[in-house]
Specification:
- 2 copies of one chain form a homodimer.
- The first copy, chain A, is an alpha/beta fold.
- Chain A has 3 domains: 32 residues, no CATH class; 165 residues, D-Maltodextrin-Binding Protein, domain 2; 109 residues, Periplasmic binding protein-like II (D-Maltodextrin-Binding Protein, domain 2).
- Chain A has 13 helices and 11 strands.
- Chain A has a 6-stranded mixed beta sheet with strand order 7-6-8-5-9-11. The first copy, chain A, has a 5-stranded mixed beta sheet with strand order 2-1-3-10-4.
- In chain A, α5 packs across α6, α6 packs antiparallel against α13 and α12 runs antiparallel to α13.
- Chains A and B meet through α2, α3, α5, α11 and α12 of A and α2, α3, α5, α11 and α12 of B.
Chain lengths: 359, 359
């Protein structure tokens, strides 16, 4: 907050006494209520993602003792889902909540901060962002738009999806009509499939009527809520295309910088709290939903054959290399991401992977 | 904070004007500086663990705009490492940072909140704590001591350790003198080994001189700093005994409850931020140190044979069942932990494990 704002705010409280102006402005900081809007790409209260945005707003309001009140708007309430980035950029809303791959039209580099085929798991992604230089590059990527990004949630490894056709070899992907957006869709196309982009609300009926052969969505918790088990024969794993999808908070840079230092810290750290809380919630709810899907609904779980996964990984490398060539910033982000992924693999192989195998 | 404290604090600021007492006390909340001490079980600034405690104190001070200042004391500076629990319980310090297994003498249940052989990974542990009922049980466990616990850091999967003897079968554990504390030590004993408890500072020389045959410590980052690669022939994985060691913050209940609601929220949420930050730091630093150990120091990485891991897991089940029988509270915690572990396994197997295997 600029000095003249302090004085104005202090005056408006009617509490200026004989104490120095410094004390008075310090008080003003703590008594003036600031109101922020948070626009989101999710339907209001959407389980996991939308409720994560709600938690973020609640935490900021709570930790600031109500000095900074954040009100959440679902998609279309203030702006449509895909205008969240612009709304935060121009200051229509001070905050947004979504996923960075939605903004690939603004900058191709954004995709590396959300979900990358054969990329990083949630734990590795947070390692890269907070201690491997990733967050710094994300800031740099959004700098031209006047936006400060923060990781604010993670779904963990997603499922490969729901299929009405068994996948026994790479040949079975040929002609497959599957709802799969983004980089994963591009990879499927190169494997001979037909990626289709459908909003969440149309997935069930398209799958049920045979308009599509397969769909990915998130994981057991969100998929079961959509009833996808009633529209498909097989539930495939693992989700090679989104191994640790990161959700993001977008913060208008000027609005953030005008806050006193303590509120700035509260906003940034509340994002970290939600980042941890969401993956913890997904870990628990996915496990519970999976139990219901398998034991109650008798869903058939199948693993994609190694041959198919290997081929999808080669195609993913091709796609990522092409995306990286878009511009200088995207190349810089890709190289940092790739270097981290290649190096963390040895560690993850002898820690998480070796342990989970032994248990 | 109790009402009479508000009034006293408000009066001491000399800022009470003609506004209502409610406003004045609200101001007092934000202007009075509260000073807290945080005692820790770590040497001051110990990489990862001690620096995590430092970060926690810094975050609370920063998010509170200096209204709550937390000063960190290393082990022995104010109280010895193993008196941290008592110091927080009686209010000598308002906060502590350590690991719950240190307090098994107070309550056997505490061990389930730190590290359990063949237990939960960091991600699963956070799932259990925040969304699976674990944290509620942890509160209940520490309630008689007037302490509020919080997860405040995680090392991730630890390494099985440094060995001067190759482990080819369960027979090779017979007579093995190994520095391994806690539940892991008890399991080793049942496999015929001799668990030894040594403070960190004596490990290197004991291993070098042959006083012990093997030792576990943490992982590549901390182990390399201790120079353990200069004292042993083999570096074994995975760390079956500590698959996701949780660090804890201890908070004196009365001190917490006397804070205004916003500062209470800041203290609790700062612990979550550090919980996420520490595992992110370990993921990155372990990966970097492992690269140096393998490529520069030519350390020989070996996997414990499946037969050995299977046997250690059966013995672990025996040990955990015996610990659970200690008292009612421990049994209650064990049953919640075990139920979560058994159910999360299916989900982790088709998500993290299947994905890491495919990559």
């Amino acid at each position: 907050m600029k000095r003249r704002h302090f004085i104005k705010a202090a005056a408006s409280t009617g509490l200026i006494t004989s104490t120095s102006l410094t004390s008075a402005t310090a008080l003003a900081k703590s008594t003036a209520t600031i109101k922020w809007k948070m626009v989101t790409t999710w339907p209001k209260n959407f389980p996991g993602l939308g409720t994560g945005a709600n938690n973020l707003a609640k935490l900021i309001t709570q930790m600031s003792g109500g000095r900074l009140k954040v009100k959440v708007y679902g998609a279309k309430e203030l702006v449509p889902a895909f205008e969240v980035f612009d709304a935060v950029s121009r200051g229509t809303a001070q905050m947004g909540h979504g996923a960075a791959y939605y903004w690939k039209g603004k900058t191709a580099a954004a995709q590396f901060f959300a979900a990358v085929p054969f990329g990083l798991t949630a734990q590795e992604m947070n390692g890269w962002l907070y201690h491997g230089g990733g967050l710094k590059l994300w800031h740099e990527t959004y700098e031209p738009f006047g936006i400060i990004p923060a990781a604010a949630g993670n779904t963990g490894v997603q499922m490969a999806g729901w299929f009405n056709k068994e996948i026994k070899s790479i040949e079975d992907l040929k002609g497959l009509k599957m709802r799969i957006p983004g980089l994963g869709g591009e990879v499927l196309k190169r494997a001979g499939g037909t990626p289709v982009n459908l909003p969440g609300g149309e997935i069930f009926s398209s799958l049920k009527t045979g308009a599509i052969d397969a769909t990915e969505w998130v994981g057991p918790y969100n998929d079961m809520a959509f009833g996808l088990h009633k529209a498909a024969k097989f539930y495939y794993y693992p989700g090679w295309h989104e191994p640790g999808t990161t959700l993001e908070a977008l913060i208008n840079k000027q609005a953030l910088e005008e806050l006193p230092a303590d509120l700035q810290s509260i906003v940034i750290n509340a994002c970290k709290v939600v980042n941890l809380d969401m993956i913890s919630e997904y870990t628990t709810r996915n496990q519970q939903a999976l139990d219901t899907l398998v034991n109650k609904h008798k869903v058939k779980l199948l693993k994609l054959p190694d041959e198919v996964l290997d081929r999808l990984q080669s195609l993913s490398d091709e796609v990522l290399n092409e995306v990286a060539a878009t511009d200088k910033m995207t190349k810089k982000v890709f190289e940092s991401f790739k270097s981290y992924r290649d190096k963390v693999k040895l560690w993850s192989d002898i820690s998480e992977l070796a342990y989970l195998t032994s248990r």
